[in-house]
Design a protein that fits this description.
The chain is mainly α. Helices cover about 75% and strands about 5% of the residues. It folds into 2 domains: about 90 residues, Helix Hairpins; about 130 residues, Helix Hairpins, CATH 1.10.287.1700. The structure holds zinc ion.
Length: about 230
């Protein structure tokens, strides 16, 4: 087994571990992010409050109409009950009857408007309820899939740790030091495979001598451009 190959094997396991760690962090972030649910929940609460106000306004408008109808009944009783016979008083009652009827008409219009507003708020509330329920269903589905992926990744990380131990045990101490220092300075990739005469990490074309050296079992060869260890 060449020195470069043992490091390449280690690099493959470390890359897999890096990818798993990045994805696990992303999953944590998504699971912790409940903005969509908060927004839908807030909208639903606002719709609930608006419906409550519309309901109160409708009740008040209905009471106004009922009270006005009572006033009209009393007026009609006085006007036609026979207890009032004075022509002036009867005339006043008649004028009052007309005024009360005009006011009733206004109050009935207001009641119709309140009914329409109430119906509109009922529809808004129903829409907000449905939107919140949809977000909850969607999140439950997403979270279920994410929890499954998370569990799978954690198992994979467990296995990779064992693989890493096995791979690291074959690397000489000095090579390990070089490898770790390159990992730290080269965005996690210390070892690059030679692909069609080029460094797969940076894309630089290798000289024939470099490409030849990369096949050496005894020596570690570096890419002239990115300085990573080459493996062929
Ligand atoms: Zn390179």
């Amino acid at each position: 087994m060449s020195r470069a190959f043992t490091l390449y094997r280690l690099q493959q396991v470390d890359t897999k571990l890096d990818q798993a760690a990045a994805r696990l962090a992303e999953i944590e972030r998504i699971l912790g992010d409940n903005q969509a649910h908060q927004a839908a929940s807030q909208a639903q609460q606002q719709a609930q409050a608006a419906l409550h106000s519309a309901h109160t306004a409708l009740r008040a408008a209905e009471e106004d109409v009922t009270a006005q109808q009572k006033r009209i009944e009393q007026n009609q009783a006085s006007l036609y009950g026979g207890s009032v016979t004075n022509p002036k008083e009867l005339q006043d009652l008649q004028m009052e009857a007309e005024s009360l009827a005009r006011r009733l008409s206004e109050l009935e219009d207001a009641q119709l408007e309140a009914m329409a507003a109430h119906e509109q708020q009922q529809a808004s509330k129903a829409a907000a309820d449905a939107a919140l329920a949809a977000v909850e269903v969607q999140l439950a589905g997403e979270h279920k899939a994410l929890f499954a992926e998370q569990a799978e990744l954690r198992e994979q990380v467990e296995r990779s740790h064992s693989e890493r131990e096995a791979a690291a045990s074959t690397v000489p101490a000095a090579d390990m030091e070089t490898y770790l220092s390159l990992r730290a300075s080269k965005a996690g990739t210390a070892v690059a495979k030679v692909q069609a005469g080029t460094c797969s990490a940076c894309g630089a074309e290798l000289s024939a001598a470099r490409a030849q050296a990369a096949r050496s079992a005894e020596e570690l060869t570096r890419c002239d451009n990115c300085k990573r260890i080459l493996y062929d």
